[in-house]
Amino acid sequence: MMYPDPSSVSRVCSIGAGPIGGGWTAHFLARGYDVTAYVHDMAEREALMAIVETAWVSLTALGLAKGASLDRLTVTDDLDEAVKGADFIQESAPERPEIKQALYERLGQIVPEHVVIASSTSGMTMTEIAARCPSPARCVIGHPFNPPYLLPLVEIIGGERTDPAAVDWAVAFYEQAGKAPLKMKKEVPGFVATRLQEALWREALHMVANGEATPEDIDIALKNGPAPRMVVQGQCMAFHVACGEGGMATNLDQFGPALKWPWTRLEAPELTQELRDRMVEGCNAMAGTRHFTEMAAERDAKIVAVLKAVRGDA
Amino acid sequence: MMYPDPSSVSRVCSIGAGPIGGGWTAHFLARGYDVTAYVHDMAEREALMAIVETAWVSLTALGLAKGASLDRLTVTDDLDEAVKGADFIQESAPERPEIKQALYERLGQIVPEHVVIASSTSGMTMTEIAARCPSPARCVIGHPFNPPYLLPLVEIIGGERTDPAAVDWAVAFYEQAGKAPLKMKKEVPGFVATRLQEALWREALHMVANGEATPEDIDIALKNGPAPRMVVQGQCMAFHVACGEGGMATNLDQFGPALKWPWTRLEAPELTQELRDRMVEGCNAMAGTRHFTEMAAERDAKIVAVLKAVRGDA
Q1: What is the mean pLDDT of residues B31-37?
Q2: What is the pLDDT of residue B157?
Q3: Average pLDDT for residues B23-46, to the nearest whole number?
Q4: Which A residues 222-261 touch B at CB under 8 Å?
Q5: Concatenated DSSP letters of A71-131
Q6: Cα nearest neighbour of B157 on chain A
Q7: Residue B298: what pLDDT?
Q8: What span, in angstroms and rounded, lies between the C-alpha atoms of B243 and B251?
């Protein structure tokens, strides 16, 4: 199957009137697309519009694409009408297998096969969702992070019957559409971002359960400690740059034994040579030719901007 | 012991020429204090000044206190000279028990007992550090988050022989000095912030070890997903507000079973009624009288500012 150039997409169909579907609708409108929003029942239109209008405030502040307008939104409860002329479909229907499977069976019949269909699902696999779809090759997961109109991440993966070219197309399209796409290496429950967040969250619950911290303590610690750096560098590059000349290699070779310390109730992985090398090589690749002092200065400047933004004088 | 009013502090002694000691020196100078920096050897002066000057760029961008100046720094390798006239001492000596214990033995002799001494230690307890100190009541841990000139968090706890009033004084002083103090409920390895970060870090290492993600994937996921929200709300309030009207109660009552899902390799705590209530009450207390829509709007506005800050147009 030949998929059209991602830059040629002009109309997007967004299925679903909840916070995820509404968030996607607002995002695509803000990026200058024509959007048809499918709602199960026209009674949901008002709720959808409330979400879109709330999101529009932030999207306007972030900067709208040329020609972007709420006037380019059409809302319908007719699925055939909704997908007509759409160059891409973002599906955010309820997270129930029977609903998704029936929907993809129908979409597979009425949507041309060169149109990629992406599901916002956070808990199902595309293999399961597209079980009854007659044209599963173009079906992928495009999982946003809430709220989807604000946070750029989209985690992308296909199912067993997905064409790898459809996955690559989705990555290219989301990039074009102003998102930060992450092509998943494997199906893994929770994807990447939610798994990482969940590890932190479980530790937070342990601390509250043990009387070591209150919820307020947890939030004070995160907002004033790791988070301002994490938003600027992620965690791998944060450690890489913090270790100076030696980078991630120093971090792992010197502090590796600390993985055995009972910090957190999470069992630590074995720090094999292979794991060490993957971490070191990954960080070196991200650093490229930049010296750590250059990266540290860039980090500092951005943390300053983030702190000013958070305290409200940006 | 009566400790002086934290607002009366005018001279701070910062012990240590490394990134932590140097970072503290820069921070206190930026907040308008006179600072005496103790270095073990005058040969370390140059390295210390390099750290202070690097930090000064960021501190200036964040806004200096009235009268703040690098000219108000004195560097000495004479400990008696260093502590003379100091109203507060921040100790960031090497993390070796014999060094810290000898230092606190001497400080306990030469520093008036109403002067609080805080250690930046990340791995020792104050009980251990002050083992040989003749006046341990005023000795506390004041553990910063790296880099200490930028990240506001300071985690505070005493040892077995610490006067609780000295802990409270340190909390009040750090607040006065522009930090975000967190008074620890219990001695816990890794304190609060580093434990939470470590849980996330271990999960990240597991994902890389299993070929589920590269270090770059980890960083893309964090920077574009959880981090922009975490810096604005922490994790407890992020979930509280995301669950709308129902808040944290909905989060735990509805998604509680998800704690048993194999998301992350971290064993989940038992979601007892007590834990549930602590989480819910903690979030309600933080929310105060604010409606969730108000908090969500504030979150969105700040995430917008953070995203603009990170991409460089703040």
Answers
A1: 98
A2: 97
A3: 97
A4: 222-237, 239, 242, 248, 259, 261
A5: GGEEEES-HHHHHTT-SEEEE---S-HHHHHHHHHHHHHHS-TTSEEEE--SS--HHHHTT
A6: A212
A7: 78
A8: 6
Q: How far apart are CA B305 and CA B251, in angstroms?
A: 27
When scoring B27, B174, B175, B217 by the number of chain A Cβ atoms within 10 A, the one with the most, hence best to mutate, is B217
- pLDDT given for residue B308 in this prediction: 80
Q: Are residues B177 and B33 in the same domain?
A: yes
Tens digit of pLDDT for each residue in B104-135? 999 999 999 999 999 999 989 999 999 999 99
Q: Helix axis angle, B215-224 relative to B193-209, nearest 10°? A: 130
Q: For residue B242, which residues of chain A lie inside 8 Å, CB to CB?
A: 146
Same domain, A99 and A165: yes
Domain span at residue B141?
6-183
H or E stretch including A309?
Answer: helix A292-311
Interface test with B, best of A196, A243, A267, A310 (most B CBs within 10 A): A196
- CA–CA distance, A171 with B310 (Å, rounded to integer): 22
> What is the DSSP code (8-state) at residue B85?
T
State the Cα–Cα distance between residues B127 and B162, nearest whole angstrom: 8
The residue behind tokens 């300053």 is A304
Find the helix packing angle between B45-62 and A292-311, rounded to 10°: 30
Q: Judge whether A230 lies within some domain.
A: yes
Establish if B200 belongs to a structural domain.
no
Per cent of chain A over pLDDT 90 is: 67
CB B94 within 8 A of CB B124: no
| CA distances from residue A150 to A20, A58, A178, B222, B228 in whole angstroms, order as listed | 11, 7, 11, 14, 9
Strand partners, B183: B156
Nearest CA in chain B to A280: B215
CB contact under 8 A, B304 and A62: yes
Contacts of B294 (CB under 8 A, 6+ apart): none
Contact in structure between A241 and A260 (CB atoms under 8 Å): no
Assign residue B69 the CATH number of its domain: 3.40.50.720
Contacts for B291 with CB less than 8 Å, ≥ 6 apart:
none
- A267's CB contacts (< 8 A; 6+ apart) are B202, B265, B266, B267
pLDDT in tens, chain A (314 residues): 799 999 999 999 999 999 999 999 999 999 999 999 999 999 999 999 999 999 999 899 889 999 999 999 999 999 999 999 999 999 999 999 999 999 999 999 999 999 999 999 998 999 999 999 999 999 999 999 988 998 999 999 999 999 999 999 999 999 999 999 999 999 888 899 999 999 999 899 889 888 899 999 999 999 999 999 899 889 998 888 888 778 888 888 877 777 777 777 776 677 778 877 877 887 788 788 888 778 877 777 777 788 788 777 65
Q: Between β-strands A139-144 and A153-158, what pairing exists: parallel, antiparallel or unpaired?
A: antiparallel
Within 8 A of A212 by CB-CB distance, chain B residues are 184-186, 188, 192
Q: Per the domain annotation, does A34 fall within a domain?
A: yes
Residue A25 lies in a domain: yes
- B176 and B299 co-located in one domain: no
pLDDT of residue B313: 66
